[in-house]
Amino acid sequence: MRSAAGTSRKGHRRVAFIVPNIGAAGDLASEEGFLEAVVSRRNSYDVHAKAVRFEGSATNLNFRLDDLFDGPFPPTALLVAKPRDVVVILIHLQKRGLTVPHAISLIARDHDGIFESSISHYAFSAESYAQRLSRLMLQIGRQGYLAPKRHLIFPSYVDAGTVVQAPPDPS
């Protein structure tokens, strides 16, 4: 997610992408885009980015979050891949005394109806999805197969107020 890594525009120099370690193509593409964007900005910003993979359970996610926030570069911004994990992360942050968005900015990569006006997230229109799917289905009908390439749909960013200017760097 190249634009989520762009939280550096709001002064965030320590960012993390939280993703379950299941190897889904969309997750891998998001992680790749996230890290590429951060690397491309490293020349002008002292940015520390990390992809944090966890093994799917809330317990493992909490363990990985403790490692992340107790480490040398605790993040000021999080991009969270799965909607269900946003809830676990919000509770974890609250227990640590960290508030969203004042201490930590947060973006959900995937849309969920509950995020509409409360969590900044990415969403794509059902119409765009249906059009892309229709074109792919027609291609399968005409050719009998799809070429082995990525078929990506790029969502739009929905600002719901959980990304703000980074807090001052303690160092």
Q: Helix fraction?
A: 25-40%
Structural category: alpha/beta
Number of helices: 5
Relative strand content: 15-25%
SSE ordering = HEHEHEHEEHE
Mean pLDDT, all residues: 85
Shape: elongated
Major beta sheet, strand line-up: 2-1-3-4-5-6
| Distance N to C terminus | 28 Å
Q: Spans with pLDDT under 50 lasting ≥5 residues?
A: none
Radius of gyration: 17 Å
Biggest sheet, in brief?
Answer: 6 strands, mixed
Number of strands: 6
Care to give the gist of this entry?
The chain is of the alpha/beta class and 171 residues long. It has helices spanning 2-5, 25-41, 58-70, 83-95, 126-143; strands spanning 14-20, 48-54, 77-80, 105-108, 120-123, 156-158. The chain has a six-stranded mixed beta sheet with strand order 2-1-3-4-5-6, with helices on both faces.
Task: Please provide a written account of the structure.
The chain is of the alpha/beta class. It contains 5 helices and 6 strands, in the order αβαβαβαββαβ. It has helices spanning 2-5, 25-41, 58-70, 83-95, 126-143, and strands at 14-20, 48-54, 77-80, 105-108, 120-123, 156-158. Helix 4 (83-95) links the parallel strand 3 and strand 4. The radius of gyration is 17 Å and the shape is elongated. 27% of the residues are buried.
SSE topology sketch:
Elements: H1 2-5, E1 14-20, H2 25-41, E2 48-54, H3 58-70, E3 77-80, H4 83-95, E4 105-108, E5 120-123, H5 126-143, E6 156-158
Parallel strand pairs: 1-2, 1-3, 3-4, 4-5
Antiparallel strand pairs: 5-6
Q: What attributes does this structure have?
A:
six-stranded mixed sheet, 6 strands, 171 residues
